[in-house]
Amino acid sequence: MKVLYRLNSAGYQAYLVGGGVRDLLLGREPKDFDVATDASPEQVKSVFNNCRLIGRRFRLAHVHFGREIIEVATFRSNQEAAKQDDRQLENGRILRDNVYGTLEEDAQRRDFTINALYYGVEDFSVIDYAGGIDDLHNGVIRLLGDPESRFREDPVRLLRAVRFAAKLGFVIEPATEAPMNRLAVLLQDVPAARLFEEVLKLFLAGTALETFEKLRHYDLFAQLFPATEEALTHEDHEFPITFVNRGLQNTDKRIQERKPVTPAFLFAVLLWEPVRLRSEALQASGTHVYEAVQIAASEVLAKQAKHISIPKRFSYPMRDIWQLQSRFWQHNGKRPHRLRGHPRFRAAYDFLLLRAESDEVDQAEADWWTRFQERWPQEESPQAEEQQTQGRKRRRRRRKPKNTATADD
Ligand code: ATP
Ligand code: MG
Questions:
Q1: What is the span of the domain harbouring residue 322?
Q2: Which ligand is nearest to the CA of 163?
């Protein structure tokens, strides 16, 4: 509100737009607030002391209030795109999008009608050029303009349609939905780093299971996680899909309870089936289980990196979670204590519980570890501290097997 009032009194138009308006109208808590204005980024900066300009391609103003940031963007235009020098199109895809425009033009370049609502403080009303209010009331996700060309312009909109449908419990209206399966392959052209960000938003919004099912329905999941899709479709057993379902349900529950969720665990769940299958094949041809998992993990991560780039800070813990699984079967002597002291023990144990719940492994195995922890609470386990540091040293010295492609290399 401060940003809107301040820009108005400096003589500019200013509106709250996007998810902020949508979520407030739905009685939900907005994740962030975006403001659209006819002031240029430099003009915005001159109005606020607490303002920074960011971005080279898209110049945006960030107005800071303590830890909160209000993103202020100048109205942009989607019109006459091809004619503008500032903006290039390649196969219908937007490469640059830096042409300023009017409020109406700004509304037209947004993705869905429910995201193109503008709230202003001149008269405290919502401006709706595209029928967004009706769609909000009817629970409809509708792309503005011609769906096929809007999806081609930016294929990430395919994922956004699914994300909002799942998160808000809305339906994607028929004309928007019609080309989705056919256009799913366009995700191949989206940079792997952007897809990583989008996948996090898809699976960390509290409706991961619903989102997963919709992604598969629209053939989008196969574009994001081809190895997983392949493994799930060609599997005769129930447990791999149960495992993913349970893992996603867990994630949703943790988010509802406002507990932290780590992307590493989520990605470890999503990629487990291909890792498991590959490692079993390697073991069948005589490779030791430890090495088999290591090789399988490297191969699966390397292939996955072509689609979604998973930063090392997540792929390293993923490898640990997978690698530690084989060590759960060693119950003798100090080994369980050593495993217990591993920094990633807790995540690996949660992973084991999921495998047991989905009948991939014997529940008795998970129970053994549950009892073990009850018998040896962390503080009382004499080796724990010591082993933790040793474990780290040992890991550092261990070498990777030769001739193994690694996603992280
Ligand atoms: P949330 O923040 O809850 O995920 P949001 O709708 O605010 O949802 P943002 O990614 O924050 O989504 O984007 C803000 C607004 O910018 C959107 O509401 C939409 O109007 C516009 N927008 C974002 N991404 C796109 C896109 N790929 N194509 C067209 N418009 C977009
Ligand atoms: Mg937002």
A1: 225-384
A2: 1
What is the helix (H) or strand (E) element at residue 89, kind and residue range?
Answer: strand 89-90
Give domain status of residue 252, yes or no: yes
Q: What is the pLDDT along the chain (409 residues), one digit of tens a residue?
A: 999 999 999 999 999 999 999 999 999 999 899 999 999 999 999 999 999 999 987 789 999 999 999 999 999 987 655 444 445 555 666 555 558 899 999 999 999 999 999 999 999 999 999 999 999 999 999 999 999 999 999 999 999 999 999 999 999 999 999 999 999 999 999 999 999 999 999 999 999 999 999 999 999 999 999 999 999 988 788 899 999 999 999 999 999 999 989 999 999 999 999 999 999 999 999 999 999 999 999 999 999 999 999 999 999 999 999 999 999 988 888 899 999 999 999 999 999 999 999 999 999 999 999 999 988 876 555 454 444 444 444 444 445 454 444 444 3
d(CA 199, CA 251): 14
CATH number at residue 254: 1.10.3090.10
Displacement of CA 251 from its chain's centroid (Å): 12
Look at residue 302 and give its three-state secondary structure.
helix
Whole-Å CA distances, 42 to 35, 60, 73: 15, 9, 11
Q: In angstroms, rounded to a whole number, what is the distance separating the alpha carbons of residues 97 and 214?
A: 30
Do 8 and 126 share a structural domain? yes
Q: Hey, whose CA ends up nearest to atom 16 of ligand 1?
A: 18
Examine residue 398 and state whether it is found in any structural domain, yes or no.
Answer: no
Stretch (H or E) spanning 231: helix 226-233
Distance 318 CA to ligand 1 centre (A): 30
Question: The whole model's pTM is what?
Answer: 0.87
Same domain, 235 and 378: yes
| CATH code (residue 90) | 3.30.460.10
Sheet holding 60-65, edge to edge: 51-54, 60-65, 68-74, 34-37, 14-17, 117-120, 125-128
Q: Number of folded domains in the chain?
A: 2
- Residue 271: what residue type? L
- CA of residue 372 to ligand 2 center, whole Å: 45
Cβ of 238 closer than 6 Å to ligand 1, yes or no, is no
Atom 7 (ligand 1) nearest CA? 19
Is residue 37 within 8 Å of residue 121, measured between CB atoms? no
